[in-house]
Amino acid sequence: DLAAGLTAALAIQTPVVANDGDTAFPSAMQSLANTLTNAGSGSTRSTARKAVIMITDGLQDYPPRTKGNQMGPFSNTDAINACNAVKSEGISIYILYTPYARVLNNPFYVSNIDQYVRTP
Questions:
Q1: How far apart are CA 4 and CA 56, in angstroms?
Q2: How far apart are CA 85 and CA 113, in angstroms?
Q3: Which phi and psi angles does 56 have, rounded to 5°?
Q4: pTM over 0.85
Q5: Contact yes or no for 94/53 (Cβ under 8 A)
Q6: How many Å apart are CA 100 and CA 116, to the nearest integer?
Q7: Alpha-carbon distance values, 68 to 61, 62, 72, 78, 114 (Å)
């Protein structure tokens, strides 16, 4: 039902705040795991397959940074456990990686992100 799907998609509210900077990935994925129901085989409407499509720059920047420096490649235990919680519901996760364009006139970028960005 395309109309119902569009209505549902337009009703989605995200906690994204412009220029927030932090990425609360583990808690967001855990919230998804707690909210979503198990995926099905996809053979009927009531047994629909499910997927999460994530768009990411691949760097972690977890708030409130109480664990020390949380910047760096997106491959720590918290991130892996968060993904596994969603996948345990039978839900597929697809990643769209969006690389950074270097922003060398931004002090935060230079001191925290540039070291992880690979340039050709």
A1: 28
A2: 28
A3: -145, 155
A4: no
A5: yes
A6: 10
A7: 11, 10, 12, 14, 19
56, 97 Cβ separation under 8 angstroms: yes
Write out pLDDT tens, residues 45-101. 889 999 989 887 777 666 655 444 555 555 567 778 888 888 998 999 998 888 777
- When computed from its CA atoms, the radius of gyration of the chain, rounded to whole angstroms, is 17
Q: Which of 86, 68, 71 is nearest to 26 (CA)?
A: 86
Question: Where do we find the tokens 């099905």?
Answer: 40
Which uninterrupted H or E stretch holds 5?
helix 2-10
Burial of 67 (0-12, 13-18, 19+ CB in 10 A): exposed
**Distance, CA of 63 to CA of 27 (rounded, Å):** 10
